Each structure stands twice: as structure tokens, then as C-alpha cells.
């Protein structure tokens, strides 16, 4: 096995070669976020002497993962916290040949801004390198360190990390054989939300040419004053002052304990905006904030004013996103009408009317199914369409509608289901507890993976653009685009 080396601006890195792919793992794009750097914007890497070993993925951001009923989610989110200071790093995969000027795809992982890493098996970028693309995956600060607007700390540090990583790609990917003028950023869930926010940010302008937003949109940001309620709540739980010295004094394990406490469904904290809407619907307490230099405006307002118009956008959702949260837990089949209304009312001021629009109370219609269908559209599908409508550049929309046979066929086209198809890594999500069940269709993975590469290479896709009149949405299973009617959720979102 050869030992490939690349000379970067910070020093020489040595990766490994296998199966026609060169891998460089754990390459720093910013200094370790510890000590005086912990609550600071990402700082430059200190150059290293000699050759740096880039064959081991290295640490990731502090986090705590939990088992999921009946599903192996390690392939989707990784094994949890790998401790270590130097975790603002990137993995780079490229073909094992002499080609240069290759398209570049930068992946930003999901996980509710509190879990996940660049090293989850489902997102192995070697499949893209195999097919002629340079793939990069990054870590970023999460939770308290990345997305809590602590007084005295720059806001949106997690987004600033991503901007630093994309700047590092722009300035250094040529050394790995990539074209810095042909960068596509793609991500799923929280990673997709972040990309939608970066499209709206003046600080990331010019850092990427295209964006693929999988099960995400720009509707999940909060104002700083609303997020200050979370700062104070966490400080109270931790018995510290709600400032940088207070949070800086707490060990990570205790911080994560507090994050879990405030994230519990029973936690008493109101994160609704002035209109009574909670834009994240309780899925995560930690999200980017608007009203700073990273996001001066709400992302949809920024897009309406022309932000991101120079970026080609591929955006889409899965047909049954909320099934991941409500089917394995049994909530969908157990919840009654009163509780369904109460749950939704915590995020949506017109919960009764909205659930009625989704058939609650109709004969033979289970309240939990009405809640699930409503939240599919409220949380993911309709806000993604609104983002597509607001984007003034070229926009294509897809729907991932392949249904997993897990949980007696009830898991369906749930959140996260498209990832092993996009990366052509079905083996990681196959089996008795695999997200995709025992025998997912390889031909669909072949087609999706090729579509993503085609878009990243030259921006082309085989269906018409999306706009508010024609509303063309491409079914990845049927391989055709159709007009999609406005959803019943539309009048109930701000």
C-alpha cells in the first residue's frame, strides 16, 4: 500500500491509498477550540514540522449519543464522542490518479446541532472519489460551544467554523487536485439547515458555487433574545453565571448533562417567537441565531433580497420525515387527540385548526397519523418549498419517496433514509436493524449518487426548475417531475 503525501499551507500530510481512493483523515482547518480559542472565532492552524499522520480520523466535538428503539443508528451519526482537543478537522477523499481540476463536494453532517461527526460510516466520501469527485467532510462546534449565544461570546460559532472550513477548501483544495471554483456544499438535516443559512450569509459569499440541501431549509433560526432564555435556563441548571466565565468553568460531561436536561420533552422552557411559533418544533434547542454579522436577517428575508442568488440549489425532503421520530418510539400509534393537540400547540398557535386540516377526528383516522402528517409538512416539507420559492437563483426540488420495510413497513421514507443512497453506502444501513432493512434497491442508490455527482460537476439535472407557479418536484423513485399542490400546512407557518 502506498503512502500518499500532500503539501498543504500548514505542512505535509500523509494519508493512505486503498481501492483506487486516496484518504486524508483528520486534517485541521482551524486551531483546536480550547483554552482562549474555545469561545473565539476559528483561529488559524499552527503549522507543523515534518509529516503529519492523516490516516486516523481523530477526535470530534463533545456530544453524547443514545440508542434508538429497534434501529442501529451508529452508521448515521457515528459512535459518539471521541475526545481530544483538535477536532476542527476535515476528511478528504480523492481518486488515486493524477487528475487535477476535479469537482469538489463538501459535506456537513446533521444531528440537531448537538451530535454527529464527519466520520459516520454512511457518509464515507470514498464512493464520490471512486467516481471522480473530491469529497471533503468536516467537524464543527456544536451545542453550547457552537450555537449558544453566551454574552461575551461571538454568535454562531458553529457556522463560523463551517465558513472557516470552506475558506480552507477554497485556499487549499488545489493541493489535493480540486477546483476551488467548482465547490458544491451538501448536507443533511442540521447540516442542510446550516447550508441554507450559509446561502443567506454575507460572510460565505463566493465560497461555494452550488448547494444541496437534504431535509433542511432556512426556517430554523431564532433571535438572540429568544435564545437568551436558553442561556439563562442552562446557567440555572448548572448553577453558574450566564456568561463566558460561567460556561467556561463547567466540564464537558456536566455541560452535556445540562443539554440533555433542557432538551427533554418535559423541560419547561418557552422558545416561541413573538408570533407564538417555535420554528424547531422541539426537535433541538440549539440552532443558529439571526440578527448578527453571520445572519443579519432571517434567511428567507435575505433570500428575498437576493442573497444566495449566485448559488445553484438542489433542495428536497423525504416523503415521511417525522416517521423516524414517531414510529420507532410508538408515539404515532399511541397518542390521542388531546395529547396530539397539546404537543403541537407548544410550537404552533393554531394547532387545532391545523390538525383538522390534516384530518384529525375523521372516521378511521388515527390522531397520531394526523399529527405525523402535519409535522412532516410543518417541520420539513413545506419550509423547504418556501426556501425554494424564495431563492432567486436556479432551483431544483426533489422528493425521496422510497419506503423502508422496517417496523412492518411503517418506517417508510423517514428522515435520514436518503443518506445511504446519496453516498452509495447501502451496506452500512442494511440488515435486521438497518435503517433500510434487509434488501434496499441498489439501482436507486446508483441513480441518486450519479444525480448528485452530475449536479456537482456542471449543475445539470434531468428535470425542470422549481418555481411557485409550476411547482415541479422530482420523484426519485418514479424518475419524473410533477406539479405539486400547495400543502395544507401553508397558512399556518409565518
From TrEMBL:
Q: Which UniProt keywords apply?
A: Hydrolase
Q: Which PROSITE patterns does this chain map to?
A: CARBOXYLESTERASE_B_1 (PS00122)
Report which superkingdom the organism of origin falls in. Answer: Bacteria
Task: Fetch the InterPro entries from UniProt.
Answer: AB_hydrolase_fold (IPR029058), CarbesteraseB (IPR002018), Carboxylesterase_B_AS (IPR019826), Type-B_Carboxylest/Lipase (IPR050309)
EC number(s) on file: 3.1.1.-
User: Which EC main class describes this enzyme?
Assistant: hydrolase
Q: Which residue spans traverse the membrane?
A: none
Instruction: Say which family it is in.
Output: Belongs to the type-B carboxylesterase/lipase family.
State what protein this is by name: Carboxylic ester hydrolase
Query: Could you tell me which species this protein originates from?
Result: Sphingomonas aerolata
Amino acid at each position: 500500500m502506498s503512502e500518499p503525501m500532500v503539501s498543504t499551507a500548514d505542512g505535509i500530510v500523509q494519508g493512505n491509498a486503498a481501492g483506487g481512493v486516496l484518504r486524508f483523515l483528520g486534517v485541521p482547518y482551524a486551531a483546536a477550540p480550547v483554552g482562549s480559542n474555545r469561545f473565539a472565532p476559528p483561529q488559524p492552524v499552527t503549522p507543523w514540522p515534518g509529516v503529519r499522520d492523516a490516516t486516523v480520523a481523530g477526535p470530534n466535538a463533545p456530544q453524547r449519543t443514545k440508542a434508538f428503539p429497534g434501529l442501529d443508528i451508529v452508521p448515521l451519526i457515528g459512535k459518539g464522542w471521541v475526545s481530544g482537543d483538535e477536532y476542527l478537522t476535515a476528511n478528504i477523499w480523492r481518486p488515486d490518479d493524477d487528475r487535477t481540476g476535479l469537482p469538489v463536494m463538501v459535506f456537513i453532517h446533521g444531528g440537531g446541532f448537538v451530535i454527529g461527526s464527519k466520520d459516520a460510516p454512511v457518509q464515507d466520501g470514498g464512493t464520490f472519489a471512486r467516481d471522480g469527485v473530491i469529497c471533503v467532510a468536516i467537524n464543527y462546534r456544536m451545542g453550547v460551544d457552537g450555537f449558544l449565544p453566551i454574552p461575551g461570546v461571538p454568535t454562531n460559532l458553529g457556522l463560523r467554523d463551517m465558513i472557516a472550513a470552506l475558506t480552507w477548501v477554497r485556499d487549499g483544495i488545489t493541493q489535493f487536485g480540486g477546483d476551488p471554483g467548482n465547490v458544491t456544499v451538501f448536507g443533511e438535516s442540521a447540516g442542510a439547515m446550516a447550508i441554507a443559512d450559509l446561502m443567506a450569509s454575507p460572510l460565505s459569499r463566493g465560497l461555494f458555487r452550488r448547494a444541496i440541501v437534504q431535509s433542511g431549509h432556512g426556517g430554523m433560526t431564532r433571535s438572540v433574545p429568544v435564545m437568551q432564555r436558553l442561556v439563562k435556563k442552562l446557567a440555572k441548571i448548572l448553577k453558574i453565571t450566564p456568561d463566558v466565565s460561567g460556561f467556561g468553568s463547567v466540564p464537558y460531561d456536566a455541560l452535556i448533562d445540562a443539554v440533555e436536561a433542557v432538551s427533554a420533552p418535559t423541560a419547561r422552557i418557552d422558545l416561541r417567537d413573538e408570533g407564538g411559533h417555535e420554528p424547531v418544533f422541539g426537535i433541538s434547542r440549539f440552532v443558529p441565531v439571526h440578527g448578527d454579522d453571520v445572519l443579519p436577517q432571517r434567511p428567507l428575508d435575505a433570500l428575498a433580497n437576493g442573497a444566495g442568488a449566485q448559488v445553484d440549489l438542489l433542495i428536497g425532503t423525504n416523503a415521511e420525515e417525522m416517521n423516524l421520530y414517531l414510529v420507532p418510539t410508538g408515539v404515532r400509534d399511541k397518542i390521542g387527540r388531546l395529547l396530539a393537540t397539546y404537543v403541537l400547540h407548544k410550537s404552533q398557535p393554531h394547532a387545532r385548526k391545523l390538525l383538522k386540516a390534516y384530518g384529525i377526528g375523521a372516521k378511521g383516522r388515527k390522531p397520531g397519523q394526523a399529527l405525523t402528517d402535519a409535522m412532516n409538512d410543518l417541520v420539513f416539507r413545506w419550509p423547504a418549498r418556501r426556501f425554494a420559492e424564495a431563492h432567486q437563483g436556479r432551483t431544483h426540488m426533489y422528493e425521496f419517496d422510497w419506503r423502508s420495510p422496517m417496523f412492518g413497513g411503517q418506517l417508510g421514507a423517514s428522515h435520514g433514509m436518503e443518506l445511504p443512497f446519496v453516498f452509495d453506502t447501502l451496506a452500512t444501513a442494511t440488515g435486521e436493524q438497518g435503517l433500510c432493512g434487509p434488501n434496499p434497491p441498489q439501482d436507486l442508490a446508483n441513480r441518486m449518487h450519479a444525480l448528485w455527482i452530475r449536479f456537482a460537476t456542471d449543475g445539470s439535472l434531468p428535470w425542470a426548475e422549481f418555481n411557485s407557479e409550476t411547482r415541479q418536484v422530482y420523484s426519485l423513485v418514479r424518475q419524473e417531475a410533477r406539479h405539486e399542490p400547495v400543502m395544507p400546512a401553508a397558512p399556518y407557518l409565518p
